[in-house]
Amino acid sequence: xxxxxxxxxxxxxxxxxxxxxxxxxxxxxxxxxxxxxxxxxxxxxxxxxxxxxxxxxxxxxxxxxxxxxxxxxxxxxxxxxxxxxxxxxxxxxxxxxxxxxxxxxxxxxxxxxxxxxxxxxxxxxxxxxxxxxxxxxxxxxxxxxxxxxxxxxxxxxxxxxxxxxxxxxxxxxxxxxxxxxxxxxxxxxxxxxxxxxxxxxxxxxxxxxxxxxxxxxxxxxxxxxxxxxxxxxxxxxxxxxxxxxxxxxxxxxxxxxxxxxxxxxxxxxxxxxxxxxxxxxxxxxxxxxxxxxxxxxxxxxxxxxxxxxxxxxxxxxxxxxxxxxxxxxxxxxxxxxxxxxxxxxxxxxxxxxxxxxxxxxxxxxxxxxxxxxxxxxxxxxxxxxxxxxxxxxxxxxxxxxxxxxxxxxxxxxxxxxxxxxxxxx
Length: 425
Hints:
By secondary structure, the chain is mainly α. The chain is about 80% helix and about 0% strand.
């Protein structure tokens, strides 16, 4: 058996058995090196070089920033959204989507988004008369905006694996991220009108102005992250560090909801998550080397092209593969496992690595709300106290719309390539 295929099979088996994915990656890679009679010293060499990247410093900074803003900063964002559109029928559900989009532009994490936004909005929606399953579904599906709207941890991992500019990947994800947010807002609005969900009293211009002024420090954060990157003032890593410092300053001295003793647990939690991702990335460099050296990617390219040479059909088949994998494992390990396999095929088709990176991230993000893994939907139903069945039933139309939007992004590459090409000139 091809040693690259063996590595992937071992990884899948151990992941399904519940072995932590970073350890499963290392064990499968070591086994493949030994069985393939390859130099085992490569494991240490490439693991170190895989983690030795300045771009990866953005991950712990964005993790810390997301955790720092889960208090008052998050509540200010929700208050601003409620003041501006609270009078619309179903406004709490719409506010959940918009708040998730804004939060996403800072944290870059789906799980962090459903925890921060869902933790506040799901109880509020249930109290306002929304069905619990629908409330959990809205916050769960809206949370997938976290890994799409930049900054995105997924895109950082993908950019490191493909040596693609992370700044350009962030630019490429802007329109798809905003587009999916608008699709979800439209669905929630129409659904709320159909089921006659409540609307709040319309805020006066004076009230809106007061809330805006009170929330201005929180509202500046997405501009700080994206503006400094897109204008070329900072790299993604530098912008992450600035955002982290800004969130720390605002939490400690402006909104004053952070206490020095809270920082220990915040840094510890962020450190554990970051360490897991970095170990995974380090091992992925070795596994990628094994897979490429085995000749499996070339065999995949030739096999796929022997079935069909139609670019659109191949992209459709790739999306099916990504969707199935996304249902079975988290996105970060899926990215590091599949990227070395699919990259030669993508290049053969003439598809931009920026375009494919956004498509891959969007597809795997949908996996965050599709069982059996479905991390976000499981967290959302836990917060709501509802059954998985009722939550998933309410989420299915939104998942369907997300898949339809994925197809649009797949076959209209300008949605991902236009902005990077304009801002890079």
